[in-house]
Specification:
By secondary structure, the protein is an alpha+beta fold. It has a single domain, classed as Penicillin V Acylase, Chain A (4-Layer Sandwich), CATH 3.60.60. Helix content is 20%, strand content 29%. It contains six helices and 22 strands. Helix 5 packs antiparallel against helix 6. The N and C termini lie close together (6 Å).
């Protein structure tokens, strides 16, 4: 894996590049749980200091894939079709499959991945460019993914490059039951947390430390005061308070509007900068995945409205074409509502190995 391509992987995987000695915060994720699982929605913001071109791809079932170009690897044939947000046309930031499983990768500078111990380590290697695709291609539920992780290990290559810049992530999966599986690497070991109460994910610190911070603010009571900065912990606290204080018996428009409002509360204003803090990141786009309805909503910060891909109205059978929504095309700012008609047949994206 050459230096240029490692750089590309780092940039696309959840806007997950941090430069040592400079502050970087990026991305928030919130889950809305409707009563009796009638409505399950996952919202996510992507925040970064420079533009990250993001196109949407729809992949059918039956595609043969691999985790790296050579060496010990995972090979698979996709069981499920999915819609994918692909940065730089080189790596998957997040996505949702046809079974309603959603996966998002967010920056977490405390992560220390499991890496190859030497030439005798035969564990398969997973590129960050396709990690999200692996889970969406192979699993329909959080329980299935959790069971696989308990029996399998893989190495991740490409954490450090360019004299010390690092690409560090944690991930969350949510399915139609509203259950979330959080994946975090700590000291080279994968730690997982599972439950319906894992409704919020931001960045640093890692899960248990973040929960300790949130518990402090629960004692303060958000009715009285909430932290208001764009820092990761502050966004986590605000999102946690609001998602636990909105009705769960909403009908669809109200539920979608409620989560969209909460995502607005944790976005960083477009163009926001702090002098001397070049990595403070404004929100570039927001997505809302409708797990129960099969719709994937997307809105760029400079778009006047959201648009969506409806997986239920697309051919996802083996042999169906790969489709692409090119957001760099003229007229992108006019996308709104059902965007299926804007999808065009495409070659698969080329992973930035």
């Amino acid at each position: 894996m050459n230096l240029k391509n490692i750089l590309g992987v780092a940039l696309i995987a959840g806007a997950a590049v941090a430069i040592p000695a400079q502050k970087a915060d990026a991305c928030s994720r919130v889950v809305y749980l409707g009563d009796e699982n009638k409505i399950i929605l996952v919202g996510r913001t992507l925040d970064w200091r420079t533009p990250i071109p993001t196109n949407l791809y729809v992949y059918p079932r039956g595609m043969q894939k691999q985790s790296v170009p050579s060496g010990p690897m995972l090979k698979w044939t996709s069981k499920y079709g999915s819609v994918l947000a692909v940065g730089y046309d080189g790596g998957v930031t997040e996505g949702m499959n046809e079974e309603g499983l959603v996966m998002n990768g967010l920056f977490c500078k405390g992560s220390i991945y499991k890496e190859a111990l030497g030439p005798d380590d035969k564990s398969p290697v997973m590129s960050l460019a396709v990690l999200v695709s692996y889970f969406l291609d192979n699993f329909a539920t959080v329980d299935e993914a959790d069971a696989w992780l308990k029996e399998n290990q893989f190495n991740i290559f490409g954490k450090s490059f360019d004299g010390g810049t690092v690409s560090l992530l944690h991930w969350a999966l949510t399915d139609k039951t509203g259950t979330t599986l959080l994946l975090e690497y700590d000291g080279g070991e994968l730690r997982t947390f599972k439950g319906r109460d894992l409704q919020v994910l931001t960045n640093d610190p890692q899960h248990e430390a973040m929960e300790a911070i949130n518990n402090y603010w629960k004692g303060v009571n958000g009715v009285n005061m909430l932290p208001g900065t764009v820092r990761s912990a502050d966004r986590y606290v605000r999102a946690s308070f609001f998602i636990s204080h909105v009705p769960t018996n909403f009908e669809y428009p109200e539920a979608w509007g409620s989560l969209n409002s909460i995502m607005g509360n944790v976005t960083v204003p477009y163009g926001y900068e702090i002098q001397g803090e070049p990595n403070v990141s404004s929100t570039q786009w927001t997505s809302i995945a409708d797990l129960t309805g099969g719709k994937y909503y997307f809105r760029f910060a400079d778009n006047q409205s959201a648009f969506y891909i409806d997986l239920g109205r697309l051919r996802l059978n083996p042999g169906a074409p790969v489709l692409k929504l090119d957001t760099s095309a003229p007229g992108r700012l006019d996308f709104h509502g059902d965007a299926n008609s804007h999808l065009k047949k495409s070659e698969p994206f080329t992973p930035m190995w």
